[in-house]
Design a protein that fits this description.
The chain contains 16 helices and 21 strands. The two termini are about 85 Å apart. About 45% of the residues lie in helices and about 20% in strands.
Length: about 625
């Protein structure tokens, strides 16, 4: 069953990836929110600017139209009292220029009931001019309203420029229509005034009447927008639902620019002002700064994403490696625990980190008893140094694997022979050597079998003595040792007298018994560990006596001959004793730098054996005194 902790470890890369994504999204979200707030702050600041500008412009418009209204009221009042007779008009013509004291006023005009010009501030011949066709004239004629009428912009008949008209009705003493008093304002006056304000390259300030007719607009020196009817614009279509002053976002029908504006209607006159800035101009500094900030944030997010993806990828890889290691370890434990061999893991401190259950069968101790103990505990003292050096070489990286055969103490038995296959292990993350794995198997039976095979390979099957092959190898070893140490080496060659006749007379089984008896005698006489008794071939035997001089050699030879006599084995074909006897040839050599071939010793003993046979058999013949035997010539 998978625990919540293991499940958490499994999902760790997913959680890490989710955390990285959350961080990136959070940074982007916070950055976007911050930029949006900064954008709104810039827009709100721009709204305050255009609102302040609208307040100033509507105040200026009120002041202008208040001045015009004051002049018109005084002029109409005088005409209604004095009448429009020639004397009055003459005085008025002289009086009017004094009223044009402000640059706000373009001209002052007086018309009679037929539209004929009576008086004006313009210097021109107006005797034939008539304004009865003008809209303002017709409205005053048809309406008894005596208030000031601010009309739409028109082109002046006197100068041809665009003007804004302000007019009042003149009544006769009976209240009938007597004419119109008109005062005009140049549109260019408002345009020039609006140019004083910095509202951006695409900003604008406009003066409109309440019907949506454009009276004046900044940046309009050619008067291209004067007189435009904007009554179908959303601002005027929903005019009654709107407050008298408010922020207004719109796309201008005049130039197609998306604008942020503030409109304000005059509380005294039927006009309104619209102060606006281009939304792109307002947001341009924010966009530049936002681009720089966003680039930095995006770079930071990309960096975090790259680092996060690298870390998540590392977590995935580590998790896969951990899963693979866990699977390998489980597989290893399964194999180790099911294996008949003992599997051990040895740490760098030579302590056992793991021991498979088969250790009970192989060495008698349980895994619990062995864990934490020294890996070389219980190894035979003679094998300890070799095993320790091999393990140290593996841990030092001198070799990757090794194979050893050594003796190991058993809990119940005395000692067993084991074979250990050693292999280094490496850390999965660093690749450094972190220990050694040993697979140990019981080699006692195999070692016994090998010893038996080795013994069979070097032992004569009939007599149990060393065979010719073992004799030749031992002779070369002892010759080299005697030559190195400067000691004497002796050799006895023994041949059973008339053995063929014995064999023919008594049979082969008796012959084999004779040879076995002689073999037992030789084994008894070759008492020292270094002495070697061997069957040289057929009925011929040899005894090699290292570190032995001529006297010792003769003593051993006589002992063998005497023991054979004491055996008293009947041999009727061997007169005069009619017992089994042997002829013995003996030789002793002191190997020198010149006589380097052991065959000289064999040749000398062989010649002595031949001499013993020629001189009557059943005797020992020494091959001279102790001399350095010359090398045998080819």
């Amino acid at each position: 069953m998978v625990t919540s902790r293991e499940l958490g470890k499994t999902r760790l890369p997913l959680w890490a990836a989710g955390f990285v994504v959350l961080i990136c999204v959070a940074i982007l979200g916070l950055s976007a929110w911050r930029e949006w707030e900064m954008r709104n702050v810039d827009l709100r600041n721009a709204e305050i600017d255009v609102a302040n500008l609208a307040h100033s412009l509507v105040q200026h418009a009120d002041d202008t139209f208040e001045l015009v209204d004051t002049i018109l009221v005084g002029l109409v009042h005088r005409l209604e009292i004095d009448g429009t007779g020639p004397d009055t008009i003459a005085k008025l013509q002289a009086y009017l220029p004094t009223r044009k004291s402000s640059d706000r006023i373009r001209g002052i005009f007086v018309y009679d009931a037929t539209g004929r010009w009576l008086a004006t501030t313009e210097r021109l011949d107006f005797s034939k001019l008539n304004n009865s066709d003008r809209e303002y004239f017709q409205r005053h004629r048809d309406s008894r309203d005596t208030g000031t009428l601010i009309g739409p912009p028109v082109k002046s008949k006197a100068g041809g420029q665009w003007i804004i008209t302000a007019s009042r009705r003149i009544n006769d003493p009976d209240g009938g229509f007597a004419g119109v008093a008109l005062l005009t304002i140049d549109v260019s006056y408002f345009v020039k005034f609006y140019e004083r304000f910095d509202i951006g390259p695409n900003g604008s300030a406009s003066l409109l009447n309440n019907g949506g007719i454009m009276l004046a607009r900044s940046h309009d020196e050619s008067s291209a927008f004067v007189g435009r009817d904007l009554s179908n614009a959303p601002l005027f279509r929903e005019w009654k639902k709107r407050p008298t002053a408010a922020v207004y976002y719109f796309k201008s029908p005049l130039d197609g620019v998306q604008r942020l504006s503030y409109y304000q209607r005059s509380s005294r006159y039927p006009v309104m002002v619209l102060a606006s800035k281009s939304q792109d101009d307002v947001l341009a500094p924010w966009r530049r700064a936002a681009t720089i900030r966003s680039t930095f944030v995006l770079g930071l997010v990309v960096l975090i994403a790259l680092i996060g993806s690298y870390l998540v990828r590392q977590l995935w890889q580590r998790q896969r490696m951990a899963q693979a290691l866990a699977a390998n370890e489980a597989h290893f434990r399964l194999l180790a625990e099911q294996s008949s061999d003992m599997v051990c893991r040895i740490g760098l401190d030579n302590r056992l980190l793991y021991v498979s259950p088969s250790c009970v069968r192989i060495i008698g101790w349980s895994p619990v008893e062995l864990l934490g103990t020294s890996a070389v505990a219980g190894i035979h003292a003679e094998d300890m140094e070799r095993v320790t050096q091999t393990i140290a070489a593996l841990k030092d990286g001198d070799a990757e694997e090794a194979r050893l055969v050594y003796r190991q103490r058993h809990r119940e038995k005395s000692e067993i022979w084991v074979e250990a296959a050693l292999h280094v292990t490496r850390a999965s993350d660093s690749g450094e050597i972190d220990g050694v794995v040993a697979v140990v198997r019981d080699m006692t039976a195999q070692k016994d079998l090998q010893d038996k095979l080795a013994s069979l390979a070097t032992t004569d099957g009939l007599t149990g003595l060393a065979n010719r092959r073992a004799f030749d190898e031992r002779l070369m070893e002892e010759w080299a040792r005697a030559r190195r140490d400067g000691t004497q080496l002796s050799l006895l060659l023994i041949d059973v007298d008339h053995f063929k006749k014995f064999n023919d007379h008594y049979g082969h089984q008796a012959g084999d018994g004779c040879l076995r008896a002689l073999g037992r005698i030789l084994s008894t006489q070759a008492r020292r560990p270094a002495d070697l008794a061997a069957r040289y071939g057929g009925e011929e035997f040899a005894v090699l006596l290292p570190n032995t001089g001529p006297d010792g050699c003769a003593e051993v030879g006589e002992g063998i001959r005497q023991a054979l006599h004491d055996l008293a084995m009947l041999h009727t074909q061997n007169p005069p004793s009619r017992l089994i006897t042997a002829s013995i040839g003996a030789a002793t050599s002191l190997p020198s730098q010149i006589a380097t071939d052991s065959s000289t010793l064999v040749a000398a003993a062989d010649r002595a054996l031949y001499a013993a046979k020629e001189s009557g058999r059943d005797r020992l013949v020494m091959s001279g005194q102790v001399v350095s035997w010359p090398a045998k010539s080819a």
